[in-house]
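Handover notes (outgoing to incoming on-call)

Open items:
1. Glutathione S-transferase: sequence verified, structure written out, both below. Nothing else pending on this one.
2. Nothing else urgent.
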Amino acid sequence: MMKLYYSATSPYVRKVMVLLHETGKLGDVELVTASGTPLAPAEALLAKNPLTKVPALERPEGPTLFDSRVITAYLDTRYKGGLYPAGDGRWNTMTLEALGDGITDAALLMTYEGRLRPEDRRWDDWTEGQWNKIARACAALESRWMAHLAGPVDMGQIAVACALAYVDFRHDARGWRNGNPALAAWFADFESRPSMESTRPPAG
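Glutathione S-transferase structure tokens:
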């Protein structure tokens, strides 16, 4: 059986978990808790992923896979999930997934800045720069990507939904919905999917 090293609060892990729910293959994977931070890496991951980051997917037939996009592509291929469409549509899906992951990257850096860096060393302008990335990404989703978001479920949509949910989870007061009514409506609908409801992170 494959092992997924995970943290319940990681938005990158959540992408993988949503895929497993959407494909009905959650039972194929053993979940192994491996929480950590850049200052306190997860010891359980050292031999699996030298970056000590989750998610990491240990397979009986080959090396452990890491980086959420590698894992989701592998699992989608393995299970013929169709979450990465064939042809030119694949590039749109992968670009949208990269945009969602970029939102997550910026939001996570904001979280680390506020939680891990000593208060007297925090750089407000740098934090605002990360938020500006999120705001620009949301504006782009609102103006350019709504037709794709309204289409068949794919990994691009899952990545965006997990990213926006993480912004809500850690930076809700920032109000990403302001000026993005279509995106907000889409997210409210997508967030009600069983795969999203089943993977909500615990509070805290």
